[in-house]
Each structure stands twice: as C-alpha cells, then as structure tokens.
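Tip: read the tokens left to right.
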C-alpha cells in the first residue's frame, strides 16, 4: 500500500525537471511514475504547476545550543529550517558551550537537542589545538567530519590551528575518514578592523587572505591524503587555486553562501551590521565571478552559514559587532531570486543546495528525489513574491540583512520522511558511520 502520492508537473529529479507522481511508502520514496498515473494511496496531493523539490541539505548551521541558546537553539533553528524547505542540517561545533571537541561534548549536545528537532540533524566535530586524540572517538560516535579555523574564530573556546597543527589533524582525518571543513583565512594577512565603517571592515579582511589560506589547505591535503572542504568562499580569487587542485586530483571541494551570491558590498548601508560576516560580503564584480565558479562546478555547494546572535551584539559599528548572518529560513528564495534572474533553473538550485551538500558530507538517503531515498520533499511556488519581515521568521533573534526585501519563491509545504513538518518535532539525529 502506498501511503502518500505527491504529483507535480515540475518535479525536480536528479535527471531533470519532469511531470511526475512521487509515491511514498513508510518514510521512503517507493517509486516515480507518470504525473497522471492511477495510484492507490492513503493520501494524494496534486501540486499541479507548483514545483516539487528535494528537501534541502544545509551542512553549515550554527545552532549554538547548549550554552548560547539565547542566540539560537535546536527548536527555533529546525523550525526555521523546515519553513525554508531544509530537511537536513549539520550543526557546527562552535558557539555552543561546550564546543563539540570531544565525545562528552557531543553527548551534551545530543541531550540538549533531544525532542526538539523539527528536521533531521547531524553534527560536525571540532579540531582545535591539542585534541587530535579526540577526533577518532568523535568519528566513532557519528560526526560527519571536523571543523577547524586557520584564524581566530571569534570565540576563545574554539582557537585556530597553526600550520603544524593543521597538518597533524589532517593526517588523523585521512586515517579515520570523514572530511575536514576549513574556515580558510590567513591570519597574517588579516588587519585590525580599525573603524566602524563597512569599508574599513572589508579592507581588514582582503580576498588574498582567503586565497593564501586555501592554497595552504590544498597543499596539505595533497601531502596528507585527507579530504577537505573549504567553507564559505567569499573571494573569487580562490577559484583558480581550487580549480587547479581539483584538476590535479586533490580531494578538495568548496562552498559559498546565499549572502555572497545575492548581496554586494556596494549595497551595505553604513551601520547595518546585520550584513557583517567573516569572510565579508565583497563587490558586485566579485559576486559575478562566484556565480561563474558555481556554474563551472569549482564551487559545488550553497549553504547558509547560519550564524545568528542577539540584536544587542549587532551594534552599529562594524569593528565591534558580532560577525554572522542569519538566513537559514531564507536561503532557498534568496538563491532562487538571483539564480532565476541569471538564467539558472530549479534543477541547478536543487543540485547546489541538496544533492551536492549531501554528497560532500556523505549523508546517505538524502539529496534527491529518487527511489530509496528518504521522502524529504518541498512544495515550492517559484513565482510567488515573499516579502521578508525579520520579526515573522522562526529564527530566535529577528536580525537579518534580508529584512524588507521581496524575494522570489515561497515554500508551501515541507515533508520530512513523508510527514509534513507541522510544528510537532519528529526530526532524528543523523549519526554517520565510519
């Protein structure tokens, strides 16, 4: 017996967009049929010309619980995810207290998240000075890989790795599996913010700091055999280094974020520190080059880097304000707004925001509308206008640079493993296997 059929003339599958009926049995996709196929099912939903997308996979989310739950917590973050068409998130190891740098800290996080998750949640471990011995136990417990910084993280309890420490950690990761995801900025090329303006902040974090750090990571990955992933690429100067390494067979992938693809330095109003993030939003010309890198596959993933904070930390001074952008609920319409304007289709968006992140992190059963995968599905209206009111988002704190903008596209329903995300938590922990 089929439990659910969802029909759409715009079903986005890995093979392309087609008219189809998706059959769900239990929690899995049991079959794909012709749009009008007669199927006996307990429930039959016809979206007609609305799009049916795979649930998005966001591998870069700072939930912050436990310890900084007033910034964001599992309940609010996963509500926002579901409302934005995201059915799987991977939680970053920092900004929570304790940070996820050993197995005991992961257990504390699991206890804090229990019963609160509206979507499926997996976890990154942290690589910090002195914890190489803790990486294997974290991997055994189910983290998908490890996050490290090459420059100060912004919180004292998660310090960066030196070049020698990074090499040691990569050697360990090469042996135990998973991937090292790297915040790549060269601290020697970072300046002091100096003043309160956005121009001064931007000048303090030049694109060359990213390029230099990425070159070092690529070299060490080649020497150690570790698989690496470069986080939140904001500078197009990194693309040449990444493309050359990929052509040479180095196991390196890279992501960028909605804010780097949809916003530009020329648009940042003075004092509006909702736009502050590290690395920073750069020029319009740079943004165009990032889109080109995405189209060519040098950048493979678009994920949120959702890094929220209370409004009182977003003081109107770019030198002093917390650096992080809240956009977990808004990533899909934000990207669709710009992607459709540039001539890309929903299949491109699904690849960048679902299939590729799932592949990068090796999350099984996610990332595409295909038989055997979890029935993680999104009804999406690609032509609707979506005005953004920060106060109406599920994010715990109403701070976002998208406030007041009108985005294109609206998430209407999100199904997690065949069940609507409806305010009753039924997300699961995703603990990967070695």
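Filled-in amino acids:
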């Amino acid at each position: 017996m089929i439990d659910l059929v969802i029909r759409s003339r715009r079903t986005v599958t890995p093979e392309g967009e087609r008219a189809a009926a998706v059959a769900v049995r239990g929690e899995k996709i049991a079959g794909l049929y012709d749009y009008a196929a007669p199927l006996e099912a307990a429930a039959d939903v016809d979206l007609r010309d609305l799009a049916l997308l795979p649930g998005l996979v966001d591998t870069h989310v700072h939930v912050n619980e436990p310890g900084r739950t007033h910034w964001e917590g599992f309940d609010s973050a996963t509500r926002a995810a579901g409302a934005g068409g995201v059915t799987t998130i991977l939680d970053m190891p920092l900004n929570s207290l304790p940070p996820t740098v050993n197995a005991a800290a992961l257990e504390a996080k699991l206890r804090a998240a229990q019963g609160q998750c509206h979507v499926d949640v997996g976890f990154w471990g942290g690589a910090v000075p002195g914890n190489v011995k803790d990486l294997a136990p974290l991997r055994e417990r189910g983290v998908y890989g490890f996050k490290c910084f090459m420059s100060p993280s912004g919180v004292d309890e998660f310090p960066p790795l030196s070049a020698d420490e990074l090499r040691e950690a990569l050697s360990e990761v090469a042996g135990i599996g998973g991937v090292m995801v790297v915040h790549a900025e060269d601290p020697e090329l970072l300046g002091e913010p100096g003043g309160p303006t956005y121009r001064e902040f931007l000048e303090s974090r030049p694109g060359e700091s990213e390029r230099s750090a990425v070159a070092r990571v690529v070299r060490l990955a080649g020497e150690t055999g570790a698989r690496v992933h470069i986080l939140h690429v904001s500078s197009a100067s990194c693309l040449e280094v990444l493309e050359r390494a990929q052509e040479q067979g180095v196991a390196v992938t890279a992501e960028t974020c909605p804010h780097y693809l949809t916003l530009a330095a020329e648009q940042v109003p003075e004092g509006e520190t909702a736009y502050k993030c590290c690395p920073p939003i750069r020029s319009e010309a740079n943004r165009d080059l990032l889109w080109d890198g995405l189209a060519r596959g040098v950048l493979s993933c678009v994920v949120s880097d959702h890094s929220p904070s209370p409004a009182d930390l977003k003081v109107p001074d770019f030198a002093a304000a917390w650096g992080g952008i809240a956009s977990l609920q808004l990533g899909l319409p934000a990207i669709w707004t710009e992607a459709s304007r540039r001539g890309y289709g929903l299949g491109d968006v699904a690849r960048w925001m679902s299939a590729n992140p799932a592949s990068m992190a090796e999350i099984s059963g996610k990332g595409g509308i295909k038989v055997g995968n979890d029935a993680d599905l999104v009804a999406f209206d690609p032509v609707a206008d979506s005005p953004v009111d920060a106060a109406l988002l599920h994010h715990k704190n109403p701070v976002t640079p998208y406030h007041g903008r009108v985005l294109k596209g609206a998430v209407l329903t999100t199904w997690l493993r065949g069940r609507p995300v409806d305010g009753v938590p039924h997300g699961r922990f995703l603990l990967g296997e070695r």
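The mean pLDDT is 97. The chain has two domains: 2-52+376-384+405-423, 55-361.
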